[in-house]
Write a structure and sequence with these properties.
The chain is an alpha+beta fold and 440 residues long. It is built from 12 helices and 27 strands. It has 2 domains: 124 residues, Roll (SH3 type barrels); 299 residues, Alpha-Beta Complex (Fumarylacetoacetate hydrolase, domain 2), CATH 3.90.850. Helices cover 19% and strands 25% of the residues. A hairpin with a 2-residue loop joins β2 and β3. The radius of gyration is 22 Å and the shape is globular.
Length: 440
Amino acid sequence: MPLHTDPSHDPALQSWVASANAAGSDFPIQNLPYGRFRRAGDNTQPWRIGVAIGDQILDLAAARNQAGWPAALVAPLHALANGDLNAVMAAPKALRVALRQALSAALRAGSPQQAALAACLLPQDQAAMALPCAIHDYTDFYTGIHHATTVGKLFRPDNPLLPNYKWVPIGYHGRASSLVVSGTPIRRPRGQTLAPGAAQPQVGPCQRLDYELELGALVGPGNALGEPVPMDQAEDHLFGLTLLNDWSARDLQAWEYQPLGPFLSKSFGSTLSPWVVTMEALAPYRLPFSRPVDDPQPLPYLDSAANRDSGAIDIQLEVWLQTAAMRAAGQPAVRLSASNFQHAYWTLAQLLTHQTSNGCNLQPGDLLGTGTQSGPEAGQGGSLLELSQGGKQPITLLGGESRSFLADGDRLTLRAFCQRPGAARIGFGDCSGTIVAAAA
């Protein structure tokens, strides 16, 4: 199915939910991301799926019983009411598009469903959020060439990119069990490190704790074992995007990663934003994908006319830090860096096709991390490892504090938004975590 826009993307659309029409809102009617929630403080209430609209959530458990929904959407609305986003992720793209269009019609100004649905809203600040879906498997890729090059120079000044980087999407299997939703504290991990000149490693709290600015792509319909997904079908197998912070213990990583790659340095926690921005909502922000003419071009199985025409996505990314001292002094978070996903060396479709090219089967809700998204300019690093040049150049913060790596009490927040002429601004919401001390 080719990428396209429809009336739900019209930048002139207004919602009867007044906060959705405010300038700078992450969740105007042109967005309509899904999240899993229940009323804060009520642990007896079952989780259900809602749609973010302005500063509210449309509770689909309440809304499904109201009149006005097309008959074909009764089953998916029932699944969402029961907290099962995976069932909708598994549905054909045509049904997902129809559901988005029905939600858009119900929430736009003048909708005949307004009176019935107004009672189905819950303020977001009164909701507790969970991971948006069941995630059984997690692959973390390495698509940020500027991150890969900068980090490579720290360890291999004469050969920063390994020979395979420009030919094959590099990835490793992450730990789905330690994925947590935004707002969950992150405990500083313990592990083995080898001090310079030491004869044997020691075990203790990580001293070089870092973040990684990533996006997470959630898989829609899966594929059968042994049946690869070709490039011309890959987009239909992608459901939506979240923000992803793949917290990293750089000192543990340096000791353990050879020869099989990251292990305990990554598996202690990875944070997802609670809202899934659908691929349909991102249609207005698609860009042509191309490689520098002197670089290897994608092999035929990773190439398609559609990918060249619109495989990239214009998503602006930001990293914000608030230390414990800043919070105590009433000071807001400061922005550490900004970059854009359009600089990624591989597209989301290429990641999915490559993951399945050996016959690997994906399931609805599987997570594909993009790897750290850094920009080409100084100050656009997606990790402290880059911004501090491996800890050699600490970053000075408000009040005279400095950081080479994260300290206990630091709150790190990722943000993202799409904004282009002729399209409404849409955002992803916050992806935050606060560092707490290592276990005794």
